[in-house]
Design goal:
It is a single chain. The chain is α/β, with parallel strands linked by helices and 259 residues long. The chain folds into 2 domains: 152 residues, 3-Layer(aba) Sandwich (Rossmann fold); 42 residues, no CATH class. It is 35% helix and 25% strand. It has 10 helices and 10 strands. Helix 6 links the parallel strand 7 and strand 8. Helix 5 runs parallel beside helix 6. The radius of gyration is 19 Å and the shape is globular. 41% of the residues are buried. The structure holds adenosine-5'-triphosphate and magnesium ion. The site of adenosine-5'-triphosphate has 11 residues, from helix 1. Its main location: membrane. Keywords: Antibiotic resistance, ATP-binding, Nucleotide-binding, Transport. GO terms for molecular function: ATP binding. It is a peripheral membrane protein.
Length: 259
Amino acid sequence: MTTTHAIEIHGLTKSYGDHAVLKGVDLSVDAGSVLALLGSNGAGKTTAVKILSTLLSADGGTATVNGFDVASDPGKVRESISLTGQFAAVDEVLTGRENLVLVAQLRRHPDAGSVADDLLTRFDLTEAGRKRVATYSGGMRRRLDIAMSLVGDPPVLFLDEPTTGLDPQSRLEVWETVRELAGRGTTVLLTTQYLDEAEQLADRIAVLHEGRLIADGTLAELKQLLPPTTVEYVEKQPTLEDVFLAIVGHDRRHAEESR
Ligand SMILES: Nc1ncnc2c1ncn2[C@@H]1O[C@H](COP(=O)(O)OP(=O)(O)OP(=O)(O)O)[C@@H](O)[C@H]1O
Ligand SMILES: [Mg+2]
């Protein structure tokens, strides 16, 4: 089965006990594009990513990834994806290169060493690759984590909060990595709470709120959701943060006071 949508979700529902987290989510992501899934804490972003990566089954609705149904064809879905969770899954005792070789061997790659070296070059980690991961910065660790998930070159990549907890410099490094992947045609679905991250990286942005997608479009489209421009907006373009707070009905002053 072929589709131009790398990810397609219809009417997806999921509850934990009587807590309905996803209440009918529809979403499609074009092959080769970057989608940012935004939402507050507990909105259900990780739940959605877990369903798409076959770690969790949905209660209702359908989801396909790379043309394969997550419920009826989970093996094919897993062959098509890589998943990088919030906490780097790297072995601190090993060097960066050893981590990569280990993953390539686990995936039964016939030439694990050259797979590792290629990825180190691609992620600008050749020097660092000889050192133990315990000595890495957060950004290097996360880049290595993403590199490890790319062994085998899967067409669809899920990044669950790839830069949470990173300092600004490390965030920029991860952003470069995502741009590099997007440039090669990898479909990326990333979740984030950083609105500037979505602005920087995403072709399209979807906002998950109280179990539903309340917005889905390009940054320019989302900016049009704001009320007609008032004098307040004359000198400064609204940021995605303004749009986000407006559409989730949040009191901006309260948000600024609590910063
Ligand atoms: N295994 C579970 N059992 C019960 N409730 C859960 C479970 N996993 C998640 N939840 C609840 O489901 C809701 C959605 O959680 P989820 O982790 O998907 O949100 P999120 O958008 O990723 O949040 P965050 O931004 O904090 O990572 C939350 O209220 C959470 O407490
Ligand atoms: Mg989460």
